[in-house]
Amino acid sequence: MKFKVLLSFLVAAALAAAASAKSITLLNVSYDPTRELYVDFNAAFAKYWKAKTGDDVTIKQSHGGSGAQARAINDGLQADVATLALAADVDALFNVGKLVPQDWQKRLPNNSAPYTSTIVFLVRKGNPKGIKDWDDLVKPGVTIVTPNPKTSGGARWNYLAAWGYALKKYGSDDKAKEFIAKLYKNVPVLDSGARGSTTTFVQREIGDVAISWENEAFLALKEYGADKFAIVVPSLSILAEPTVSVVDKVVKKKGTEEVAKAYLDYLYSDEGQEIAARNFYRPRNAAVQAKYAKVFPQLELITIDEAFGGWAKAQKTHFADGGVFDQIYLK
Amino acid sequence: MRTYTRAIRTALAATSLLAALPALRAQSTESEIQALRAQIEQLDAKLRILERKNEIKDEAAATAATTAPKITINDKGFTLASADGANSVKIRGLIQLDSRLFFNDGGGVVNNSFVLRRARIISEGTFAKNYSFQLVPEFGGGSAAGATAVSILDANIGIAVTPQLQLKFGKFKSPVGLELLQSDAWTFFNERSIVTNLVPNRDLGIQASGDVLGGALNYTVGIFNGIADGANSGNADFDNEKDGVVRLIASPFKSDVSSPLQGLSFGASASLGREKTASGRTGGYKTDGQQTFFSYAASTITDGQNWRLSPQLDYRNGSLGVIGEYVLSASNVRPSATGTKTELRNKAWQLAAGYVLTGENSSYAGVVPNNNFDFSAGTWGAFEVTARYSDLKVDDNAFPVFASAATNADEAKAVGVGLNWYLSKAVAFKIDYYQTKFGFNAAAPAVSTTQILRQDEKAFLTRFQVAF
Predict the structure, then answer these.
(1) What is the CATH number of the domain that holds B355?
(2) pLDDT of B7 higher than 70
(3) Degrees (nearest 5) of the Cα angle B92, B96, B100?
(4) Does any domain span residue B135?
(5) What residue numbers bound the domain in which B53 lies?
(6) Could you tell me if A198 and A210 are in contact, meaning their C-beta atoms sit under 8 angstroms apart?
């Protein structure tokens, strides 16, 4: 009799638990090369969330040029979280749509950049054009692949890394501008995003060198073979800090605030950092950094704040309509 | 000697040159090949760049297309929609030009004419996916000669809460009559049957409807101002009395594709309310040829409960379509403000069928020809033959207190046959012949004082229609 009572109680409890379990869907709107990272991370988070709360969470992914993705969110794409290539694109969610608070970047550690990357060169087998540093890119006859800074966050990091190098070496903004102008003269195709540029370089076999996210370059080697391509690390590059934020207005409307916040927090967890490193993003966590130290080469890295006075200023000076990029590229 | 030496030198040089020629030629060919190879590589690189640029352009166009508004112009109207389809505005139209020709009607009645039966510009739209509107002004209709009255037929706002719960607010067709609820453009006949005389037309109110049980049952419930049989509501109501309407339609075989009963829908509608108006219950009951055969005396007023009950069915199976409905309309009337209240029960029924000769499906939403009429291509559109029998009987108690037996018929029995030619989805030409036999109350004189009632009505109606 007691057994029956206990069994009934357990069945009722199980039914009640099943009835109360929720099924949640999040949309992560991200930039181009993070597809593989978030496929791995989403699976890990769904498992973690299920164990923690009993709720099923499905995360949908949307990828494209970071700037274009920010515009899509401002235009109404119902992103629960934005994991974009740079802070300026998340800033746009405040500036244009007031979808996030102005101080969004202070809400998470490391200025809401849970992982970092940098900019390197991807060259063809044997490095036929002998590319070693930024100066080699502006030589006549060298064909460069890099995306469009107007639409791609990665492209903006590429541009600023080159600018930072030229500024340091040649000593003035005018010289840097001249350098950048020469560089973009060697760019025959501007893709809208970093993944498109990889396709141009790797699959369409266009160009002698692709200026690339480090993680994207590693991925190209992994996917297409280290015997076909090589990574060249320049003498100086930039610390690229992709940033993440909950899209407050959307999650409040959808009632997904709690899980969206937990999703981003989990990027900073040991498992989240491990997944980032496995996907060739430089982790913030010291222990994971140490574990993957051999993977990521050491090089001199400038930062956006030090070299350009922050993203807002860099964006306005270089990439806004009529900015430096327009002046050199549309000329 | 010098000449000799020179000759020898020249000969040696020539010999050397001749000996070196093949090597020089070989060198030249090799360098040409290398130059050509380099040229081909350059051209190949340029070609790949051009191809990639085109790819990027196509990708950009495809991306832009997903966010660009969509404009659609087809035989269903003009639609401007947002990329996600959540917002749209649609403009449609309906023009019906009729001719009416009456045979053997005594000659004294002026009733043969061309009629601009309907002329409508229909505006519809959806906002934020779930909110919709409809605005339909009527520029045609039975206005008196020279009159240019424009009326608002439909003006309503919808909220699609779920497929099971759709709300509608405003002016629209009261959900009682089966044939009345069908679009004006797609009925079997140019004119709806005499049964429609007994159901309310457009009324002001609030309605909830939806498909439940997997679409096997459609329900509609609503509350309306309440209007007379066959009448259209004005834009306001000045009594406190309202009509409640409910309609249930079952389609139990809807998802059984192999069943011959898949296209069977049946059910019933009912309305219940109270009216207290200074005017009579109806402006008049009309024949298929749109001539009035019954109307209440001008002093008759409505006062009290009214109700309607209407079982109905619709059956479609390939080219065959059948509709049937019965209406019992009861109302309490007084001969004058102080006269005795009497409940009158008028009844009507119809059975109508259509068969599409050219093989297209019969449909409640109109016949779509497989091939449009195109004389040069030798295609003729779709042809449908139709037949109908209908009967309307006015309560005997209406005579002589509420209506004159001498000037009104108390019953009309109508037979109709027709031929519909669908030149395209939007354009149709229709020919109908109606013959209506009148019955009279016992108190009626041997010969009606109304000329059109002295013989059967024999009407030949044609219609040229554009509906999109």
Answers:
(1) 2.40.160
(2) no
(3) 170
(4) no
(5) 1-64
(6) yes
Q: Does B128 fall in a domain?
A: no
> Residues B192, B59: one domain?
no
Q: Per the domain annotation, does B326 fall within a domain?
A: yes
Two tokens, residue B399: 């005579």
Q: Is residue B112 domain-shared with residue B14, that is, in the same domain?
A: no
Q: Is B226 helix (H, G, I), strand (E, B) or coil?
A: coil
Is B433 inside any structural domain?
yes
Partners of B42 on chain A (C-beta within 8 Å) are none
Check: CB of residue A132 under 8 Å from CB of residue A174: no
Tens digits of residue pLDDT in A43-56: 999 999 999 999 99
Same domain, A85 and A230: no
Q: Do B45 and A206 touch (CB under 8 A)?
A: yes
Tell me the CA distances in angstroms from B376 to A76, A238, B380, B383, one per residue in order: 50, 71, 10, 19
Shortest CA gap B53–chain A (Å): 6
CATH of the domain at A101: 3.40.190.10
Tell me the chain A residues in contact with residue B52 when contact means C-beta distances shorter than 8 Å.
Answer: 189, 200, 204, 206
Rounded CA gap, B406 and B399, in Å? Answer: 10
Identify whether residues A13 and A88 lie together within a single domain.
yes
B279 and B411 housed in the same domain: yes
Q: Which residues contact A216 (CB under 8 A, 6 or more apart)?
A: A33, A122, A154, A194, A195, A198
In 3D space, the residue among B63, B58, B68, B66 whose CA is nearest the CA of residue A151 turns out to be B63
Residues of A in contact with B56 (CB under 8 A): 189-192, 196
**Which of the residue ranges A71-80, A244-253, B4-13, B63-72 would you say has the lowest mean pLDDT?**
B4-13
∠ CA B116-B119-B124, rounded to 5°: 165
Which of B243, B142, B168 lies closest to B200 in space, CA to CA? B243
User: What pLDDT does residue B413 have?
Assistant: 98
The tally of domains found in chain B comes to: 2
Give yes or no: residues A71 and A124 share one domain. Answer: no
Round to whole Å and give the CA distance between B337 and A310.
Answer: 86
Burial group, residue B130, by CB count within 10 angstroms (0-12, 13-18, 19+): middle
Helix axes A66-74, A87-95, angle to 10 degrees: 20
Q: Let me know whether A183 and A96 are in one domain.
A: no
Report chain A residues whose CB lies below 8 A from the CB of B67: 72, 75
**A287 and A310 fall within a common domain:** no
Helical (H) or strand (E) element with B462:
strand B457-467
Asked whether residue B112 falls in the same domain as residue B7, the answer is: no
pLDDT digits (tens, 9 = 90+) for B262-305: 999 999 999 999 887 665 466 789 999 999 999 999 888 888 89
Give the SS3 label for residue B128.
coil
Report the residue of A206, A208, A209, A253 to disrupt the B interface, i.e. the one with the largest count of B CBs within 10 Å: A206
* Domain identity same for A175 and A129: yes
Residue A113: how many other CB atoms lie within 10 Å: 20
Do residues A100 and A207 share a domain?
no
Judge if ipTM > 0.85.
Answer: no
CB atoms within 10 A of CB A271: 15
Distance from C-alpha of A317 to C-alpha of A311, rounded to nearest angstrom: 10
Least confident of A255-269, A303-317, B67-81: B67-81
Q: How far is CA B109 from CA A120, B112, B455, in A?
A: 95, 8, 12
Total domains, chain A: 2
Determine the structural domain holding residue A92 and report its residue range. Answer: 2-116+241-291
Nearest to A189 among B56, B59, B60 (CB): B56
Q: Tell me, yes or no, whether A101 and A215 share the same domain.
A: no
